[in-house]
Structures are given as structure tokens and as C-alpha cells.
């Protein structure tokens, strides 16, 4: 499968200036930016930037970013699912996972999350994919946000909904381990019925629950 990527950009107001939201960006563009030191939800910021640089080199990898001056203050990644996850079992070339989204705490009131998700879906090539995201409450910044798990889930659903992702049922053990966890997905308009059926089989291993 040929992974075509069309660059888009927009700006949103933030305090007395504007934030640039752009992507998918190249490894070289990513490396030229500074990386906000509070983008550390998944690993230390330096290590997180290294991980993003690796994703940017993947044929299917997409990195979209939120930039304040020359500093990345938010990002979202799209790539093939981890080989250890059930979502990789079908070896589907047209299934991508929204692997991570993170906005630095000081910028979370600027609608950067919804805007970057929306921008990510502007590329016509995204209609060729099933896009999934697995939401686990233990990844959420409950302490920093002051929200409980259900309030935070509503925030996540609204943000993902900006890109057309909706809730899908699944019997995946990790997702099923807590009622706030969920699978969300967007099925592109060019995805064939066979791929949709294959996705259904990935969602349910216990066929009687299907």
C-alpha cells in the first residue's frame, strides 16, 4: 500500500499570539523544533521526541504537531498498531492507530487537541484507512485536570469526535478491564467491506459476544 501524505496547517489563538498546527511533518522538520519539557506523559520529553522522530521515518507514520514559536507543545501520532496488540493480528495495511496525543498542560484550554485531530483528517488519504484509538484511563491526566474518569472520558470522546472517531464495542481484555476504557474508530469512505469485516473480527475474539 502506498501511504500518501498531504501537508495541512492552520492557526488558533492563544493568549496574545497564535499557535501553528501542522502536519504530517517530516523527520527533518520535527528535529528542527524544540520540544516542550512537559510533554512527558508517556516517557521523558527527550525520549518522547526520539520516539516521534522514529515514527516520522515510517512509511505509514504521521506526526502532526502544535507549535508555539519554535517549540512543539502538542502532537498526535498515527502508525501501524504495536505487534504485541491484537489490532496488528490481521496485518491490515489500511488500519492505523492513533498511537498517542499529548498537549502540554499550559495549552490545554486553547482547543489544540480538537483542532489537531480535525486537521489530521483533512488529508483525503485518510479515507483509505480505518483509524482506531484505544483509550485507557491510566493514561489520562486525572490529577492535573481535576476531572474524574467519566468527566475525562467525555473530554476524550469530544476531542476524538472532532475527527469523526466514534465508540466501537470490543471484547479486548485491556479495554474491558475498566468501564471507562474504550475503543474509538473512524472508517474511511474508501474502506472496502472485506476490511470492515476483518476489523470486526479483530474487535471480537469471543465470537458469541459479536
Give keywords.
single chain; 210 residues; alpha+beta; Aminopeptidase; nine-stranded mixed β-sheet; 7 helices; 9 strands; globular
Count of beta strands: 9
CATH fold description? Aminopeptidase
> What general form does the structure show?
globular
Q: In percent, how helical is the residue content?
A: 25-40%
Q: What's the story with the biggest beta sheet?
A: 9 strands, mixed
Number of domains: 1
Strand content: 25-35%
List the helices and strands and how they pair.
Layout: E1 8-14, E2 17-23, H1 27-32, E3 34-35, H2 45-57, E4 62-68, E5 71-79, E6 95-103, H3 112-120, E7 130-135, H4 142-145, H5 149-161, E8 166-168, H6 173-176, E9 182-187, H7 193-203
Helix pairs in contact: 3-5
Describe the model.
This is N-acetyltransferase. It holds the Pfam family Acetyltransf_1. This protein is of the alpha+beta class. The protein has one domain: Aminopeptidase. The protein is built from seven helices and nine strands. The protein has helices at residues 27-32, 45-57, 112-120, 142-145, 149-161, 173-176, 193-203; strands spanning 8-14, 17-23, 34-35, 62-68, 71-79, 95-103, 130-135, 166-168, 182-187. Strands 1, 2, 3, 4, 5, 6, 7, 8 and 9 form a nine-stranded mixed beta sheet that branches.
Amino acid at each position: 500500500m502506498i501511504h500518501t501524505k498531504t501537508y495541512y496547517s492552520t492557526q488558533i489563538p492563544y493568549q496574545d499570539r497564535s499557535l501553528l498546527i501542522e502536519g504530517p511533518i517530516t523527520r527533518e522538520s520535527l528535529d528542527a523544533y524544540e520540544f516542550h519539557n512537559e510533554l512527558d506523559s508517556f516517557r521523558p520529553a527527550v525520549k518522547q521526541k526520539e520516539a516521534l522522530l522514529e515514527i516520522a521515518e515510517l512509511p505509514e507514520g504521521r506526526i502532526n504537531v502544535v507549535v508555539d514559536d519554535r517549540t512543539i507543545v502538542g502532537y498526535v501520532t498515527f502508525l501501524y498498531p504495536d505487534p504485541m496488540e491484537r489490532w496488528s493480528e490481521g496485518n491490515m495495511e489500511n488500519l492505523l492507530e492513533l498511537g498517542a496525543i499529548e498537549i502540554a498542560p499550559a495549552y490545554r484550554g486553547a482547543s489544540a487537541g480538537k483542532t489537531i485531530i480535525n486537521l489530521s483528517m483533512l488529508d483525503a488519504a485518510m479515507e483509505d484507512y480505518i483509524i482506531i484509538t484505544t483509550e485507557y484511563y491510566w493514561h489520562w491526566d486525572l490529577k492535573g485536570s481535576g476531572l474524574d474518569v467519566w468527566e475525562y472520558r467525555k473530554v476524550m470522546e469530544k476531542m476524538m469526535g472532532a475527527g469523526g472517531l466514534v465508540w466501537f464495542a470490543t471484547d479486548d481484555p485491556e479495554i474491558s478491564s475498566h468501564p471507562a476504557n474504550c475503543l474509538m474508530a473512524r472508517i474511511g469512505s474508501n474502506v472496502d467491506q472485506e476490511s470492515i469485516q476483518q476489523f470486526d473480527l479483530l474487535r471480537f475474539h469471543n465470537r458469541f459476544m459479536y
